[in-house]
Amino acid sequence: MIRPLIPFRYPALFLALSTLLQGNPPARPPESKPVILAENPRIPVPLFDATTTLEPATTIDTPSALITRIADRGRDRHAREDLVNGIPFQAYDHYLRFYWEHRTTTIEIVDYVAKGGTNIEVNLSSLWPLGVRDFRAFYRGLNTVAEYHYNLGPTQVGPSDSAGPNRYTTSFNRYPLEGNRPLRVGDRMEFEFSPFLLAPPNGRSNYYGTAYLYVIGEGIKPWQAVGPRLDSFPIPKEAWLGGRTTNHYQYSNEPDHLFKQMAGNMAELSAQSFMLGRRLHHTDFGTGRHSEAGNPVLAQQVGKLGPKFINRSCVACHLNNGRAMPPAVGAPMHQTVIKIGSSADGAPHPVLGAVLQPRVTTGPVEGRATIASYTILKGTYGDDTPYTLRKPNYTFTGSAPSHFSVRLTPPLVGMGLLEALDEETILALADPNDQDGDGISGAVQIVNDPKSGEWRLGRFGYKAGQARLRHQIASALNTDMGVTTSIFPILEDGAGTTGGAPELSAPELGHLERYLATLGVSPRRDLDDPKARRGLRLFTSSGCANCHLPTLTTGSFHPMTELRKQTIHPFTDLLLHDLGPDLSDNMGEHEASGAEWRTAPLWSVGLTNKVSGGPEAYLHDGRARNLEEAILWHGGESTPAKEAFRTMPAADRSALVKFLKSL
User: What distance in Å separates the CA atoms of residue 154 and residue 131, rounded to the nearest whole number?
Assistant: First the structure.
């Protein structure tokens, strides 16, 4: 539920925050003291505000035209090509060799029809000169699943050299889907721009593009294929989990690439940086090798790994940008971060530091952890159907920490949108003292900004331990790979070793940040399935939606235009909730106790087995083997919702899980 803005853990801090964020404080609670800012300096400063420099919007509404500008990338084949005459194409969503070199384009749609005019003008630009340039529009799909009514060769209007951008234009005024009549507002225009590069220095020259659906007078919308010809129609807005960053449904049967796509509203400023960030994401910081075959070594990143580390690249932990699976009993834990400490409040271990790093490039290994066994717990649903849960037991070699917290790497989609939520949006949901009496007592996390020293609202990580996406990335580079940045210039090696000059530059960190911030979110599925729709109602009535909040709106001040003012469906409140002793570890983090965890976003949770290649694992340590187990582990303030699920008839339980799998 949406709660009124009410005090959280520190009454004085609450009042100061209200003054900061809303301009006038609410009535002071009786138990609070007058506001004296020096009493509690932990007043979170907004990440973005009216002084933030904003990147240009991708949609511009003028008196004469609706103008839409998006960026695209080269693709191997077409959107609907799965099996063609028995041949498996399945080559739309993957990335080709040298994808970061000259292979992004910009598409500008000048829609005069939206303002009473008669034509659509399309302006195109590329980073490299084009030979053949083919703008296809208005999907036909009769002879092949890549057939369009218009196949236009845009006219060159700009320079043709490697300094680019190289510009091209075309226009049209008829609607071939209905007898070639004049265009009208509401007409559907699917289009695809194919940039065929003119003798590029590396890689192949011919590429296709993303299939976009533009609705005249309205803009670009995520699409679904309808009917035997797989014609494109807008997906209903309730399925736009990531707002306009949402991608179209996938028809090329490449499930392991679902979390790797550009946002559906990608801006020109983001596209090339996204590609460079993706290259870094896939780079081994020891050898410089790319994880995908055929790409050259990134020489600038050779030799930066370690000396202590967990894994060699970002993508090695975040397989296919999805959640990691727990290792087998006794196997190395190389996709797991094990936070360690010397006390329950999370103070660093005197020898091991704050994170266990089980691998080295040189020197002695500081220690390792493995899953030694699972404790099996038995239970029954309300209808006496039995179930089992498993709880991992760990063993350590070397200096065994007395306090630790095991955390598998989470999925990466939607992180930029969570950063774009205004602080007051999150604060309005906080209710740590349960003053509304609903049994839910979410609290905000307050963390220190490692760069500015200011206090911020925590958003990222299982206990919301980082406030900014770039802080989360820089922290992972440091602890997981031993790579320093200007944000975390001292290695996390237990000894506080200075790493010298930052190993990853500020622009490189910016590319990684841009990449993760603008990954597209997959749309919700099964909208017309009666069972899934009933599951949504049960999700709400059982109390799950009290913490897994379905709908939020991002703020107006994030610098990236893709992320601003988006209505999103992340199914989280980003607050800390006490989930009870069964899910508790024995170490806190900042303001969070061992039993408190940030509400995990649920968007794309139903794609876990597709992205991971088959297995499923949920919760912070992967103990839950399916979504039913993940629910049954909930305790503490989530006990009523868990019990509502446990005591449901089997058909209702199945419907609720069906809904979750539609996300």
Answer: 11
